[in-house]
Design a protein that fits this description.
By secondary structure, the protein is of the alpha/beta class. It has one domain (2-112). The chain has helices at residues 11-19, 37-46, 56-68, 88-101, and strands spanning 2-5, 23-26, 50-53, 76-78, 110-112. A five-stranded parallel sheet has the order 2-1-3-4-5, sandwiched between helices. Helix 1 packs across helix 4 (88-101).
């Protein structure tokens, strides 16, 4: 799996995912810090990376509109902030949830991650 982390996630999550075998880039690494959600979504498509975000309101709509227009995307993983903390203690459960779906077909899907 190739993953793009939305800018709310710390580099430590990218490192933890990399150690778990997930090819991960952050939005900041791609120069997307402070850019629009549309730009981040477009970068996930260009880079062919599944997007991880907790911004369900914007990215579910953006992905839905994109798919309804007959376009494709690598997929969007939604990690609701009510389920996963961005603090260090929340990193391992989030990594486990991502690994749990890593083998699934994610293209053209919006997947809500659940705690294991």
């Amino acid at each position: 799996m190739k993953l793009l982390l939305d800018e709310m996630y710390p580099p430590s999550l990218a490192r933890a995912l990399g150690q778990a075998g997930v090819d991960t880039l952050t939005a900041s690494e791609l120069g997307l810090a402070g850019r629009s959600d549309y730009d981040v979504f477009a970068a996930s498509i260009t880079e062919r990376r599944v997007l991880l975000t907790e911004n369900v309101a914007d990215f579910a709509r953006i992905a839905g509109d994109h798919l309804a227009a007959g376009q494709h995307c690598p997929g969007v993983l939604i990690a609701l902030s009510t389920r996963f903390s961005r603090r260090p203690a929340g990193r391992d459960p989030l990594v486990a949830a991502i690994l749990a779906v890593a083998g699934e077909p994610l293209e053209d899907r919006v997947v809500y991650l659940g705690r294991l």
